[in-house]
């Protein structure tokens, strides 16, 4: 597919500076792009490549100053990174829209309902009374259990398993290998030291515009629902336990684990390898630094924490600054002790 600079500018709301008819057929990083490719500049560290790249069209911010002449056509926008993201999204939509129909072999139960313009890949399994909404894409080797509901324009990548009764909203993307609705980790200790499994009879609800990375697991609720609210973005390799709630537009980076019944607020940012114990409340706008261990609720909105156990981020930075000065402080204390001894000898 080829697009002119003018067409691209129309999509992202930009202004062309140069040849509006310059056309591109693919994307490239600004430091590596070749003729016929589109690149973007958002990070000032890469500005030097603006003058050496072979890219035909470059998306830049509207306030980007040119220190040298360039040959590429520019498209100026308020935010180059966001504009490039919008463009990539449109490009991906064009590619996936071409996927329509049912490949064989695939099992689709007669009681299920399949919407218009749906794609179902080979070896997919659609269970009893399952619903797949209009224009959704179910890639090969996906398992969709009984009574699962999938909304419109959602993409379920290869190898995803969605257990019975779970609900997936509109415009949801679930990447390869993720498991939605496996049993929560519920076992009751017995008098003889053994553990009796507590049946997990709830489900998982994933609201609209959520994206979930590869090999993430989201457990079904014991009773009720584990809920991922609209706009949340979950990375690869996460463990979301039973009855957890992740608030709207919250983001969680890879290898983090959220224990059962913890409630994550809106617009929360959680770094990689964070562990959060169960039955906590994490306030809206909280920021949890990578590798933090959260053992108590964060009740004040927009709080930033770090460490294990996690505590106030600013206080942690002050502690680190003091810790770096400890060798000098020790030296000064020894010098003061020596001075005090010398003064005591003189006074005697």
Can you walk me through this structure?
With 348 residues, the protein is an alpha/beta fold. It has a twelve-stranded mixed sheet. A ten-stranded parallel sheet has the order 9-12-15-18-21-26-29-32-35-38, with no helix packed on it. A hairpin with a 4-residue loop joins strand 39 and strand 40 (311-312). The chain starts with a strand and ends with a helix.
Shape, please?
Answer: flat
CATH superfamily of the largest domain: Hexapeptide repeat proteins
In total, the number of strands is 40
Amount of beta strand: 25-35%
| N/C terminus separation | 94 Å
Quaternary assembly: single chain
Total separate domains = 2
- CATH names the topology of the largest domain as UDP N-Acetylglucosamine Acyltransferase, domain 1
Rg measurement, Å: 27 Å
Helical content class: 10-25%
């Amino acid at each position: 597919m080829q697009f002119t600079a003018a067409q691209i500018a129309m999509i992202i709301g930009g202004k062309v500076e140069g040849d509006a008819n310059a056309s591109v057929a693919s994307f490239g990083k600004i430091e590596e792009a070749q003729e016929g490719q589109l690149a973007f500049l958002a990070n000032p560290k890469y500005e030097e490549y603006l003058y050496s790249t072979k890219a035909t069209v470059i998306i830049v911010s509207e306030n980007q100053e040119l220190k040298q002449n360039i040959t590429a056509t520019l498209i100026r926008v308020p935010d180059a990174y966001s504009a490039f993201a919008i463009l990539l999204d449109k490009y991906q939509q064009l590619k996936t829209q071409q996927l329509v129909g049912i490949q064989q072999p695939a099992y689709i139960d007669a009681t299920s309902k399949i919407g218009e313009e749906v794609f179902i890949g080979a070896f997919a399994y659609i269970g009893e009374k399952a619903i797949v909404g209009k224009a959704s894409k179910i890639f090969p080797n996906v398992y969709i259990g009984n009574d699962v509901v999938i909304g419109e324009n959602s993409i379920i990548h290869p190898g995803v398993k969605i257990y019975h009764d779970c609900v997936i909203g509109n415009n949801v993307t679930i990447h390869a290998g993720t498991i939605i609705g496996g049993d929560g980790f519920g076992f009751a200790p017995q008098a003889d030291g053994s553990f009796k499994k507590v049946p997990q009879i709830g489900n998982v609800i994933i609201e609209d515009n959520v994206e979930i990375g590869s090999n993430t697991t989201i457990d079904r609720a014991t009773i009720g629902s584990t809920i991922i609210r609209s706009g949340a973005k979950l990375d690869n390799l996460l463990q979301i336990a039973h009855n957890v709630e992740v608030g709207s537009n919250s983001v969680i980076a890879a290898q983090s684990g959220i224990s059962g019944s913890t409630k994550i607020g809106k617009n929360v940012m959680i770094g990689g390898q964070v562990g959060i114990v169960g039955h906590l409340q994490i306030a809206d706008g909280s920021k949890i630094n990578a590798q933090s261990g959260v053992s108590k609720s964060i009740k004040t909105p927009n709080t930033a924490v770090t460490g294990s156990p996690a505590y106030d981020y600013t206080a942690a930075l002050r502690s680190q600054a003091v810790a770096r000065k400890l060798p000098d402080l020790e030296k000064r204390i020894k010098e003061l002790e020596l001075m005090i001894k010398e003064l005591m000898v003189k006074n005697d």
